[in-house]
Amino acid sequence: MIDIKLIREDLEEIKNRLSKKGVKPADVEKVFLLDKKYRDILQILEGDKAEQNRISEEISSQKDNEERNKKINSMQALKSQIKESEQKISEIEDDLKKSLNALPNIPAEDALEGDSEDDNKVIKTFEDIPKFDFTVCDHMEIGERLDLIDTKQAALVSGARFFYLKNEAVLLEFALVQFVFENLVKKGFTPLVPPVMIRPEMYMRMGRLQMDQKEERYYMQNDDIYLVGSAEHTTGPLHSDYVFSEKDLPKRYIAFSTSFRREAGTYGKDTKGILRVHQFDKLEMFSFTKPEDSKEEHKFLLSMQENMMQELKLPYQVVEVCTNDMGFTDAKQYDVETWIPSQEKYRETHSCSNTTDFQARGINAKYKNKETGKNELVHMLNATGFAISRILIAILENNQQKDGSVKIPQVLQKFIGKDLIKSKS
Q1: For the packed helices 25-61 and 11-19, what is the interaxial angle rounded to 10 degrees?
Q2: I need a labelling partner for 230 at 20 to 30 A (CA). Which of 4, 40, 255, 283 fits?
Q3: Quick one: pLDDT at residue 338?
Q4: 108 lies in a domain?
Q5: Is residue 311 situated within a structural domain?
Q6: Are residues 387 and 250 in the same domain?
Q7: pLDDT the model gives residue 140
Q8: Phi, psi angle pair for 302, to nearest 5°
Q9: At 280, which CATH number?
């Protein structure tokens, strides 16, 4: 959540900056007024409790019965007043917490301003888009022809938007996993396989159950638990209520997890094949840093994404995401979009986000500042390693050959033991 002190100290500035994320000024004003009301009643409550203690001491030393009874009556009235104030403050506190939790992270001062994805800015491209001298097939045509992907049987077993990976597609998935770990572990990332379930309280603390995000989540009511939508969701809480030593920062993880999303409200071509599905495997980079280092860490994570895409020789572009299109928890965000030949356009395959201290405040992740001697909030960042199904689409489509085969990226060939996926018939 946002630091309430920022709203107290500079209401108009926070209104202005959050308006760039589509937040109504009245929603910020509501938090400000609730906070003021809370603190006013709290001040009265603390004064009444101090008065209660003073009267209690006087009663114990009072020998005159008449005076003693007056003070006892006064004490009873004060107790009633304290109880009423405690009830009010409890109600206001709940409302304040809900209203504050509904506010997204404040965009960074240098974040690109814009109203929608149309205002996002391409800042870099790599590799020319491939030219084909034959009719291009989409990933499902390739996947079915080479016996790599089966969505029809998966629909009978699990419903729409699930899939089976088969044969070399399975080997490709685990080659990609090994490729990512091989690249990032030597860069100081700690490999991690986190839980795929998360308690509602922790999900809320990570800022991942607010606004319309609940629609995306799979919730198991009998167990009061959610399935994660990304390894990010349970990697961050690994350090909840934790204090890092300054020397241990940045602390970087590369986490592998199966992820689950409803993809509510998604229709059209994206529901066919394996682009937007309910279950997929994903590798996620996650970093905890000192606040003054998070901008450079953001660039570093983006560079890791680019390095791995370049090794795969997939055509991509880097996009700076504008304020009103970035994620709820993000202060600044980049996307990597990969060329998909069958659609003749770039599609988002990676995100790279700096959430500053927004999530850290929720999970209470801090570090010991050597200069001040105080425990201060870290900054937290997350970036896609690979969303496997989307990268499989890009590999199959960009490396398809005229004879119907698919060339395996050179850096993955050592994991698979071949350089070409051919028809088995």
Answers
A1: 140
A2: 4
A3: 98
A4: no
A5: yes
A6: yes
A7: 97
A8: -60, -40
A9: 3.30.930.10
Q: Measure CA 151 to chain center.
A: 28
Residue in 234, 232, 331, 249 with CA at minimum distance from that of residue 285: 232
Q: Do 26 and 175 share a domain, yes or no?
A: no
The tokens of 371 are what? 């200069």
- Identify the H or E element spanning 190: strand 190-192
**Distance of alpha carbon 162 from alpha carbon 272, whole angstroms:** 10
Q: Across-strand partners of 225?
A: 220
d(CA 151, CA 159): 9
Range of the domain at 44: 4-101
Which residue has 């988002």 as its token pair? 348
Q: What are phi and psi of 404, to 5 degrees?
A: 95, -5
The secondary element (H helix, E strand) that includes residue 51 is helix 25-61
Helix (H, G, I), strand (E, B) or coil at 282: strand
Q: How many angstroms separate the CA atoms of 183 and 262, rounded?
A: 31
Give the helix/strand (H/E) hosting 346: strand 345-354
| CA–CA distance, 164 with 274 (Å, rounded to integer) | 10
* Helix, strand, coil content of the chain in percent (nearest 5): 45, 20, 30
Q: Is the separation of the CB atoms in 349 and 312 below 8 Å?
A: no
Task: Read off the pTM.
Answer: 0.92
Check: CB of residue 379 under 8 Å from CB of residue 294. Answer: yes
Same domain for 172 and 36: no
pLDDT value of residue 269: 63
Rounded distance between C-alpha atoms, residue 352 and residue 25, angstroms: 28
**106 within a domain of the structure (yes/no):** no
Q: Tell me, yes or no, whether 157 and 30 share the same domain.
A: no
The answer, yes or no, to whether the previous bond of 104 is cis (omega within 30 of 0) is: no
Verify that 350 and 400 share a domain, yes or no: yes
Residue 268 pLDDT grade (very low, low, confident, very high; cuts 50, 70, 90): low
CATH of the domain at 51: 1.10.287.40
| CA angle in degrees (0–180, nearest 5) for 33-34-37 | 85
Count of CA atoms in the C-beta half-sphere (13 A) of 363: 29
Domain boundary among 101, 129, 151: 101
Residues 156-172 have pLDDT tens digits of 999 999 999 999 999 99
252-262 pLDDT per residue, tens = 999 999 999 99
Residue 304 belongs to a domain: yes
Measured between alpha carbons, how far is 329 from 356 in angstroms, rounded to an integer? 9
For residue 64, what are its two tokens?
């005159």
Which amino acid type is present at position 282? Answer: K
